[in-house]
Every structure is written in structure tokens, then in C-alpha cells.
Amino acid sequence: MNKKLIAIAFAALIALTGCSTATVEKPAAEPAKEASPVETKEPAAPKEGTRENPYPIGSAITDGDWTATINSVNLDGTQAVMDTNPFNETPAEGTQYILVNVTLTYNGDNPDGSMPMMIAEYVTVDGNTINSFDKMVLPPEQFDNVSTLYTGASTTGNLAFEVPSATASEGVLAVKADMMGDKVFVKVQ
User: Fold this and answer.
1) Sheet of strand 60-63, all strands in order from the earlier edge strand to the far edge
2) In which residue ranges of the chain is pLDDT below 70?
């Protein structure tokens, strides 16, 4: 009997983890440039939304009941962070704060609503992951991830990341619109 329950629970877990499929709606593209008369074959670009070929800022990432949009990235957010709260720590030597402004919209229909479970991380050019909670600072207009949202509601705010100054513009954002969703990558500029 116990083996049967374990097998059912395991099958349910596998089914749940395999159900997530993120879709991305990118901002309007610039008009296409005219092709040159000489065509050369270039290697295929990596799949869009990967670390090697991230989506542009403003792309709407929909996964399950949630849509996340990275609205903007302020690569020089140190002064704004320091001005927000006198208890915010100065970034360590060779690092700076960046501010990532994000909007998260609840598309689900649960009558009890749902709390945001978005994950956003900064990935350095060297491949190291930096979380917004690695350094406990209060950014201006902080992203609200504790209030319940109902169908069609959204929350917008900033996340602060302490990143290496020399390569701040070379990193990417790793974003999951839903904690159990698919990770996609977004440019920082």
C-alpha cells in the first residue's frame, strides 16, 4: 500500500514539474534593414531567451498564471539606493548597485488570489548568480512580493542587486515569472 502511494505521489510530482511552458512577448522591433546583395552563411544564432541570446528589456514573459516584464534597468543605481534608506550598506569596493524595475501581473482565476512568486537573478558575465536578497538593502519603490493579487492585478517595483562595477553592463537577468516556471534570460541594456 505504501509503495503505491509513493508511486502516485512521484508520478504527480513529475507531471507538475513538466507542465510549465513560458511564452514571451517582445517589444516592437525596429524595421528590418534591407538585405545586401551578397549573402553569406552565418552560424545560427543561439535560441532566443538563453544566456547567450537574451530577450530585450520590455519583453513580457508569461508562464502559468503570471506575466513578468522587466521594464528598465538602472546600471548606476548606487546613489538612489543610498538615498532611500540611511541604513542601506555602501556597496563593497569594486561593486555597485543596479536597480531592476519589474511588473508582475496575475492572470490566474483563483478567487482567493495569489502571492507573487517571481524569481529574478543577475548573472555575471563569468556565470555567477547574484540575488537581490544577497545584500539586504531597501531600494526606492521596492517590488512588493507579499501582497495577494487577484485576476488582472499587477505590482511594479524595483529590485536591487550588488554587482561587479567593471562588468555590470555585461551580465544578464535570469527571470522566472512563476517560481516553478521556466527560466529565461533578459538583457540589462
Assistant:
1) 23-25, 60-63, 66-74, 95-106, 154-164
2) 1-22, 28-41
Percentages helix, strand, coil for the chain (3-state, rounded to 5) are: 15, 30, 55
CA–CA separation, 164 and 170 (whole Å): 10
Residue 107, SS3 per DSSP: coil
pTM value is 0.78
CA distances from 9 to 3, 29, 110, 178, 179 (A): 10, 45, 24, 22, 20
Q: Identify the CA nearest to 107 among candidates 181, 14, 187.
A: 181
DSSP sequence for 21-71: --EEEPPPPPPPPPPPSS----PPPPPTTSSSSPBPTT-EEEETTEEEEEE
Q: Are 55 and 27 in contact (CB under 8 A)?
A: no
**What Cα–Cα distance (Å) separates residue 148 from each residue in 33, 57, 104, 107?**
45, 26, 12, 13
Supply 47's cell numbers. Answer: 535560441
